[in-house]
Automatic annotation (TrEMBL), chains A, B:
<dbReference type="GO" id="GO:0004802">
    <property type="term" value="F:transketolase activity"/>
</dbReference>
<comment type="similarity">
    <text>Belongs to the transketolase family.</text>
</comment>
<dbReference type="InterPro" id="IPR005475">
    <property type="entry name" value="Transketolase-like_Pyr-bd"/>
</dbReference>
<dbReference type="Pfam" id="PF00456">
    <property type="entry name" value="Transketolase_N"/>
</dbReference>
<dbReference type="InterPro" id="IPR009014">
    <property type="entry name" value="Transketo_C/PFOR_II"/>
</dbReference>
<dbReference type="InterPro" id="IPR055152">
    <property type="entry name" value="Transketolase-like_C_2"/>
</dbReference>
<dbReference type="GO" id="GO:0005829">
    <property type="term" value="C:cytosol"/>
</dbReference>
<dbReference type="InterPro" id="IPR020826">
    <property type="entry name" value="Transketolase_BS"/>
</dbReference>
<dbReference type="InterPro" id="IPR033247">
    <property type="entry name" value="Transketolase_fam"/>
</dbReference>
<feature type="domain" description="Transketolase-like pyrimidine-binding">
    <location>
        <begin position="395"/>
        <end position="573"/>
    </location>
</feature>
<keyword id="KW-0479">Metal-binding</keyword>
<protein>
    <recommendedName>
        <fullName>transketolase</fullName>
        <ecNumber>2.2.1.1</ecNumber>
    </recommendedName>
</protein>
<dbReference type="Pfam" id="PF22613">
    <property type="entry name" value="Transketolase_C_1"/>
</dbReference>
<keyword id="KW-0808">Transferase</keyword>
<dbReference type="InterPro" id="IPR049557">
    <property type="entry name" value="Transketolase_CS"/>
</dbReference>
<dbReference type="GO" id="GO:0046872">
    <property type="term" value="F:metal ion binding"/>
</dbReference>
<keyword id="KW-0460">Magnesium</keyword>
Amino acid sequence: MSSIGVPLGGQSMQLPDADYKLTNDKTKDQAASKRCGSIRLSSEEELVLKSFRVLIADLCQQFGGGHPGGAMGIAAIGVALWKYVMRYAPHDPDWINRDRFVLSNGHTCLFQYCFLHLTGYKTMTFEQLKSYHSDRTDSLCPGHPEIEHEGIEVTTAGPLGQGIANAVGLAMASKHLAASFNRPGFNVVSDHIWCMVGDACLQEGVGLEAISFAGHMRLNNLTLIYDNNQITCDGPVSLTNTEDINAKMRACGWNVVEIADGCWDVGAITQALEASRRSPLPTFVNCHTVIGVDTAVAGDAVAHGAALGSETVISLKRLYGFDPEQRYIIPDTVRDFFSGLPSQGESLVAEWNQTLQRYSQAFPDLAEEYARRMEGDLQDNWESLIPDAFPSTPTPTRAASGLVFHPLAERLDQFLVGTADLAPSVYMSWKSKEDFEPPCLGTGSYAGRFIHYGVREHAMAAISNGLAAYHPGIFIPVTSSFFMFYLYAAPAVRMGALQHLQIIHAATHDSIGMGEDGPTHQPIELAALYRAMPNLLYIRPGDSEETAGAWIEAIRARHTSSIISTSRHALPQLTGLAKRTGVAKGAYILEEVTGTADLTLIGVGAELNLAISVAAELRSSHDLKVRTVSFPCQQLFEAQPRRYQREVLQRQSGVPVVVIEAYAANGWERYADAAVCMSSNRFGKSLPGPKAYEYFGFDVPSIVARVRGYLEDLRVDPDLKHDFVELTYAKTDG
Amino acid sequence: MSSIGVPLGGQSMQLPDADYKLTNDKTKDQAASKRCGSIRLSSEEELVLKSFRVLIADLCQQFGGGHPGGAMGIAAIGVALWKYVMRYAPHDPDWINRDRFVLSNGHTCLFQYCFLHLTGYKTMTFEQLKSYHSDRTDSLCPGHPEIEHEGIEVTTAGPLGQGIANAVGLAMASKHLAASFNRPGFNVVSDHIWCMVGDACLQEGVGLEAISFAGHMRLNNLTLIYDNNQITCDGPVSLTNTEDINAKMRACGWNVVEIADGCWDVGAITQALEASRRSPLPTFVNCHTVIGVDTAVAGDAVAHGAALGSETVISLKRLYGFDPEQRYIIPDTVRDFFSGLPSQGESLVAEWNQTLQRYSQAFPDLAEEYARRMEGDLQDNWESLIPDAFPSTPTPTRAASGLVFHPLAERLDQFLVGTADLAPSVYMSWKSKEDFEPPCLGTGSYAGRFIHYGVREHAMAAISNGLAAYHPGIFIPVTSSFFMFYLYAAPAVRMGALQHLQIIHAATHDSIGMGEDGPTHQPIELAALYRAMPNLLYIRPGDSEETAGAWIEAIRARHTSSIISTSRHALPQLTGLAKRTGVAKGAYILEEVTGTADLTLIGVGAELNLAISVAAELRSSHDLKVRTVSFPCQQLFEAQPRRYQREVLQRQSGVPVVVIEAYAANGWERYADAAVCMSSNRFGKSLPGPKAYEYFGFDVPSIVARVRGYLEDLRVDPDLKHDFVELTYAKTDG
């Protein structure tokens, strides 16, 4: 199906090949694109741009929806990238040294899908292109690019700005590998990262954080291409943004290039992009474009998120000399224009393979290591690096997290570990760590594996997604901050889980035990989000041993993200009770009774030890038979067979179950009848940790009294068994 | 207790009053502050600064914790603000025309507490100052400033950067009132907003979004004062940020002033701050300071978040000529320095009252309106503005939301309504709306009440907190975006709820019904967060009538934030069943049965109509007695008496309850035994809305089959009643 139609008047459009100066009055159509000054565009390229735009319009028209305008506006950028600038191999899409392309303004995805089709990606057939916005459940052309599909590096947008941070992560991954493996004369790692952004991406905080960070890191293997069409959904960008973006980018440490006519000037764009490979700084190419160029809605917000309408599509075809009756027209000339790219890609791969072979002879150890890393496997004995036992003294689980993780971080180069400016608090920096920093600053190198993300929680998580997306299994990014601040990072944590990326988030200072920093820091309700989030393990270990278990599960989950949620304050070691292997099942029995139990107590994380103490008190002073269960991870428990779940909880036998956790109870109703929890209608309080616990009734006498009260209430009103009961408590202030 | 101690050598510190040039070699102590060039500092001021720093050090030393370094570094800024620049009245802290001060770097709160004490705020006694980091549950000096306390405008930090956006909101509130009420010669509204920020606030995305927005809005009644100490927790800022902040701020449309010696140059700071009142742009005052100035840890990260240690405190006292044995020293000279401020404040208020009186004579109607607005009450008949009935045709609840809200927005000036660039989709812009824009752009005015926030969801919510915090009840900010993007905004939504601010978030495109934009847009798990968040109503109406109920509840909740969560797609009107008054109770019976029911079906929001249809089918084709319940808001239901809750759910009678909602089921376990829901281990899918519903089994035949299967399973295995069962379904791709 090389050509589905031919343009009318194709012959009359012959233009000189290069450096042809188009004038502004080429057409009298009011909506015609403005072509600024002298541009460089061959006749073939012009036909490609026109065919491309008509194709986009047709594809959106098909089901009456989609985002045509942006994709049409940036066609010339696509030609520059896929035809002239990017180094990639359409028939070897996962070639590790390929340039990576990220479409941060992901709603323009048809742009990418069409170029994947034209350049010869095998899975992107023409039929697939036509599945955009269709009912097909096997479509490779969803409404936004999805990482699962060939040629797509990361899932983007919708949540705008993420792509910028992802691209920064990809660029860091490449810098790190290059610093680790390249040797003079052997650039085994030499890919460049290209990221397309729209007006919106540059307004989003996560994008702005990442831009500032990339400038600091001197990521000159990164080029941001700005589709500057000055239109968003509400109308002109000037409604809400009148900043000087070029000056802002320069202030952030970027090289800035401006392209006056981003719609047509393929030559200038190509030159700017090529030059950006040699910049000492990351490059921002500000391309002035027109959304819905050459249509009746050119430069208008309505061109953004709806099909153009058949009238408008017909007019465009007429303007461009295409037969208005024909749809999905890809002229032979256009196909020919891209036809050499697969073989060109094969040559690039072959050349690189030769480099790799010479490298293997010159540096056999390094080459072996490189090959091993590319496989994505961890060394077999990684689990044995974790201490068998821990100090018996009370230890904060955040400190235990360090004891578990440091030997792993020392030995496993897969770990790229960072913090959002809480290095002294989160225990994630190991002794021999080197900082990931640009060499020019003299404080580290790109070979370093410890990343100071700054106070940029959201970008930290989004950049980590980029690190992990570079190549399957090659890195396990670790982020760290206070648990509460993972609400800042949540959109990116979600994107990691959605993309099946293994990111480990070391979240400390969970629960009200974090203390005097107060309710703004006390994560009462945040766990409810992460326990409901698909493909994410939220693990709250109760002591050092369980912390070992938490890390083991997080590392084993090669296609799942995890949050390891730890305490600020010291917790007693539950030696002989808590088991690292127990964590794998999400929940497990700590203490069993003989005969019929009166009560099952569930303890969680920093409050697990309270459950043990309360149970002991209920046994010794109140003659109750109390079972105890540790429940570090709901998601892992849900994955267990029902038989195991029933064995642990024993709700079928009618024994009441009470959970103890210093969070809102939401979600525990699945496993318990009542909760010693935070009230769901108030936040925490600024008090020293132990006092905060006491204030909300998280001490043994208070819990014992409330649990006994509950058992008595159950006796008096058996119907209470059908209500979930919150056993909350808060002192009156004063 | 005017003076608890006196400094040693006080006499020898007599310095000329003003324009005294201190030299750099004033002390040989290595840790002495650098004093750059010529500074303006009187001897009294110098004593104030020194006493202040010693006091901060003592207060942190008391309980061995807190954040001393930053507070010490910015003492001179405080003197400039509270002594010379700000217009406020310590004995009339809620005077409506006061200047507002926001401490975005809230961990330095002792800075603010001490100035509140020194300037005569009555509740901030010396005993209260000493309660910082204590066990006192009635402390007015929590670890971060809290809005509940006198002199505090907003609760800040911890979550950094929020304060910048809050200050932008305060400045917009002031601009709006000024544009609405001021008349030539009558500046009834003339307050200025001062916001202190640290290095971290300027790295956070929410701060960067707000800065860009404030520049666009030309908020020249806003001054940002940058405590540029170049230190964060990890160490020097240069580890992670080497941007040119002045150039960046200028690029964002700010006036920039630099203060070389922010530690001592009270004169220069005062001058810069005063000048900022006359700038045509918002002003950024970049004050170079030294964290922990003049101590052994000056300029070091350890000065940030821990007490200095007694040795260091003693050295500081020696250096400053204080008695090392004495603690909490506030010399009489220092008290005298501030003693005139209460009466000065009273004069300001009196003067303003006179203006107001003259204004009342000149513009009696406006003055009456102003007085009414300041009361914070809504007009009595607001509820009657809402339509009694709605079109009977299928209507998306987002459109119904517009039908309900537009007449309110037209008539109630309290509503300041904005969108994060989704005006065409969220139905929040009413016919006669005027845009809030700086007059110079020619597209609106500051009297406008519709705000184009740009693609800045997080700042939108944080700015709204500032709007609401300006004065109790004076505004009801409304934000709008797709529900999924409220994950971007979540930290600010939380801060609004925490501060008991009434913000209404109009969140559209909830559920997988939003369709082809795919899993990045489909909010599977987000409701779990908002249903667990204290003081927030998450309301999902099921048709137009319930949408009216949702708005009524959100508007009635004058001290609570709400999310009104609506559908993209058209929903049938459940006329005769759905009731706006039902929403008030969170859940209510739609259809009751006579005799014992076989099943209770709960329907929620966009899936409510499915519950009705499924119930009908189970009745007609399978002879089952099915009750139906509409459940738009868990939080409102939780507030009902248990008797009502049991009446609605009837779980005590053993009738199984199944909930239908296209979200992860987390949280429904409290009210149901099983859920027709999204699987908790996968995200949504990019398909047109109806197809997405079908794909995940949200159609009548599929639900009927699964509910019947569940009832059969219950019969076979009665123990199943103790398990919560997810009745999930997803087609195999292909």
